[in-house]
Amino acid sequence: MRHDCDGNPSITNYGRGCRCELCKSIKSLYEQERRDRARKYKAENPEKEMPKKPAGKRDNPVVYADAFTREEIMRARNISYVPDREYGGEA
Ligand SMILES: [Zn+2]
Question: Of 50, 15, 18, whose CA–CA distance to 36 is shortest?
């Protein structure tokens, strides 16, 4: 049996399988907004690709190193402020 949003239409419920009129209209609105955003972005930045959504990792099958090396962390910290003793190690 299909999922039923039970009167609470949302893109999430649509994703779960609800196909009531409200969920469908929310879905089409959502798609339309997404297209509009992409088009606007393209118009303003014709040379760029659409930035990736920083959403869930499950949408991103490309695996980067899942941890920064100590050096990378130190370097990143040094950009904004001087490391304290805990991280600096050399007082
Ligand atoms: Zn629904």
Answer: 50
CA 60 to ligand 1 center in whole angstroms: 28
Domain boundaries, the chain: 11-87
Q: How far is the CA of 16 from the centre of ligand 1 (A)?
A: 9
Task: Determine the distance from the C-alpha atom of residue 41 to the mean position of all C-alpha atoms in its chain, rounded to a whole number.
Answer: 16
Q: Which residues have C-beta under 5 Å from ligand 1, the single-atom ion? A: 5, 9, 18, 20, 23
Instruction: Give residue 26 CA to ligand 1 midpoint distance, Å.
Output: 9
Distances (CA, A) of 20 to 13, 24, 79: 10, 6, 52
| Token representation of residue 42 | 């393209």
What's the CA-to-centroid distance between 54 and ligand 1, angstroms? 27
pTM: 0.47
pLDDT digit string (tens) for 27-68?
Answer: 999 999 999 999 999 999 988 876 666 666 565 566 555 667
